[in-house]
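Run log // design_07
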């Protein structure tokens, strides 16, 4: 049973834990696309292939989980990868740091299937939510930018053609319909033309 083709990278320095994790994940329909035993291996893997989810042990030699998380979240080379942190025992200050770095969920060893699976569900759901919100914010910014341009173009028409605000706006609307150009492009052209004068 494949679970929506979710590709997971496992990072833990203990091979037994990686084996355990892999088994639980695959039994539950997830794809384990890679295993790493330290942060350097995680970063090297992510440069080639981006997992849908990273299960990341905090305590690892060479480069630990928090260090790895910092590098992942600070570098634009890695688009936001959802991460579940794994810790050997309850370490509130480490968990706090991990949450500060954008971790959605954490689990405490020994890893139990009954804790891991809901943590995956939560993380995937929150990551989807985040990317949806980011897209909406992007659209909103675009809309605001268009409004600003149209306002500016309108002001220039009013001044140069001695038109009222609504006349100037109707002129832009009509031009947009006649030329089939989007408002943004048209407003930029109007601004450009009056600026040249
Ligand atoms: Mg460890």
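design_07 sequence
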């Amino acid at each position: 049973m494949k679970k929506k083709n979710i590709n997971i990278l496992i990072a833990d320095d203990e091979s037994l834990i990686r084996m355990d994790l892999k088994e639980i994940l695959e039994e539950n329909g997830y794809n384990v696309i890679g295993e790493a035993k330290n942060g350097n291996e995680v970063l090297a893997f992510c440069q080639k292939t981006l997992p849908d989810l990273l299960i990341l042990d905090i305590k690892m030699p060479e480069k630990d989980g928090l260090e790895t998380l910092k590098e992942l979240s600070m570098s634009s080379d890695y688009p936001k990868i959802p991460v579940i942190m794994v810790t050997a025992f309850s370490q509130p200050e480490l968990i706090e740091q991990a949450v500060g770095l954008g971790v959605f969920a954490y689990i405490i060893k020994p890893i139990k299937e009954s804790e891991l699976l809901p943590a995956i569900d939560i993380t995937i759901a929150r990551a989807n939510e985040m990317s949806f919100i980011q897209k909406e914010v992007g659209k909103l910014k675009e809309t605001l930018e268009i409004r600003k341009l149209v306002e500016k173009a309108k002001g220039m028409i009013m001044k140069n053609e001695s038109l009222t605000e609504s006349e100037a706006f109707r002129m832009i609307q009509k031009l947009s319909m006649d030329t089939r150009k989007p408002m943004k492009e048209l407003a930029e052209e109007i601004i450009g033309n009056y600026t040249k004068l």
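Residues 12-14, 57, 59-60 surround magnesium ion (CB under 6 Å).
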